[in-house]
Amino acid sequence: MAVLDGCEAQKRTPVPKEIKCPKCGEELEVFTKDGMAAEEVVCEKCGHKIEEGTKL
């Protein structure tokens, strides 16, 4: 039941975060969960990958 989820549901919901690509500095939007990337993100400018589970 969604009504009873309370604060626990927020921990499972990925949150968007703007970071700079560590290789070229391009702005990237990464969805995070518990301080880690929730999915793989690829920089459109240089192709650098931020793997799922990477600590941000």
Task: Spell out the key features of this protein.
34% strand; TFIIB-type domain-containing protein; mainly beta; 5 strands; elongated; two-stranded antiparallel sheet
What does this 3D model show about the protein?
This protein has 56 residues and is mostly beta strands. It contains 1 helix and 5 strands. Strands 1-2-3 form a 3-stranded antiparallel β-sheet, with no helix packed on it. It is elongated. The N and C termini lie far apart (31 Å). The mean pLDDT is 88.
Q: Report helical residue fraction.
A: 10-25%
Count of beta strands: 5
How confident overall, as mean pLDDT?
A: 88
- Sheet-strand content, in percent, reads 25-35%
Shape: elongated
Main β-sheet description: 3 strands, antiparallel
How do the strands and helices of this protein lay out in sequence?
Layout: H1 7-12, E1 15-20, E2 27-33, E3 36-37, E4 41-42, E5 49-50
Antiparallel strand pairs: 1-2, 2-3, 4-5
Characterize this entry briefly.
By secondary structure, the chain is mainly beta. Helices cover 11% and strands 34% of the residues.
